[in-house]
Specification:
CATH architecture: 3-Layer(aba) Sandwich
CATH superfamily: P-loop containing nucleotide triphosphate hydrolases
Structural class: alpha/beta
CATH class: Alpha Beta
Order of helices and strands: HEHEHHEEEHHEHEHHEH
Helix content: 40-55%
Bound molecules: 2'-deoxycytidine-5'-monophosphate
Number of domains: 1
Number of strands: 8
Distance between the termini: 34 Å
Length: 242
């Protein structure tokens, strides 16, 4: 069973906002490479608008964690797809904090660790995995106003999203941000390792055959290199008229 409780789980935590079929949902798609500021910004935009927040990278990270624990070859497509079919991933958002569960275990912290980042792009490039993840993401968002952040939200998951943004920043700035974030989480990692991870992931994510990272034609590009988080949030919300 894959994630079929996610929707009710999220709803149960977020009350009665926007009951299904009551009004058309508004989708805000925020895509971009790692370190562009998507997560922080998407959370704040969702909070400001009163929308649900969906971190789609967490789904791929959760699957990667399970595969790593079982010591599976991350490039073995059949095995990884089979694993996903027997996995339950839940996203819950409460008190401005995202909780990610894998088969009922809280894995929120674990999936942010570098050893997961190193493998996640391999798992995310598998066609069958992306097909299932597409369904999961559409189900999660069903009937609700949502801010979704990822790599292919505006191009594949919700090509008709009302609002699309593509966040980017200079490579060096993205590396520094990710490095600081990992240090704040007490990870023992050096700048070169972070640089290598981001370069590798940028490459795999943007050159893969299925749903590569790219700006949707109708997305608004926001270069966050020299902007504060609040400036980016204000810029994005100024476009949105709920
Ligand atoms: O946003 P993140 O760093 O947590 O994402 C982890 C990886 O998951 C990223 O390197 C590529 C993949 N991903 C994806 O392929 N599609 C998405 N919508 C979100 C993430």
């Amino acid at each position: 069973m894959v994630n079929n409780k996610s929707r009710s789980r999220i709803k149960s935590l977020r009350g009665t906002q926007n009951k299904e079929n009551q009004s058309p949902k508004i989708i805000v798609a925020i895509d971009g490479p790692a370190g562009a500021g998507k997560s922080t910004v998407a959370k704040l935009v969702a909070k400001k608008l009163g929308f649900f927040y969906i971190d789609t990278g967490a789904l791929y990270r959760a699957l990667t964690l399970k595969a790593k624990r079982r010591k599976l070859n991350l490039n073995d497509e059949k095995l990884i797809i089979g694993l996903l079919k027997n996995t339950r991933i839940e996203l819950a958002y409460k008190n401005n904090k995202l909780k990610v569960s894998l088969d009922k275990e809280d894995i929120t912290q674990e999936i942010r660790k570098p050893y997961i980042s190193y493998g996640v792009s391999d798992v995310a490039k598998i066609k069958g995995v992306r097909q299932i993840m597409t369904e999961i993401q559409r189900n999660l968002a069903q009937g609700n106003n949502c801010v979704l952040e990822g790599r292919d939200i505006g191009t594949i998951i919700f090509p008709n999203a009302k609002y699309k943004f593509y966040l980017d920043a200079d490579f060096k700035e993205r590396v520094l941000r990710r490095f600081k974030e990992l240090k704040e989480n007490n990870e023992n990692i050096d700048l070169q390792a972070v640089e290598k991870d981001l370069a590798t992931r940028d490459n795999i994510d943007s050159t893969r055959k299925i749903a590569p990272l790219k700006k949707a034609k109708d997305a608004i590009r926001v270069d966050t290199t020299n902007l504060s988080i609040n400036e980016v949030v204000d810029k994005i919300t100024s476009w949105i008229k709920p």
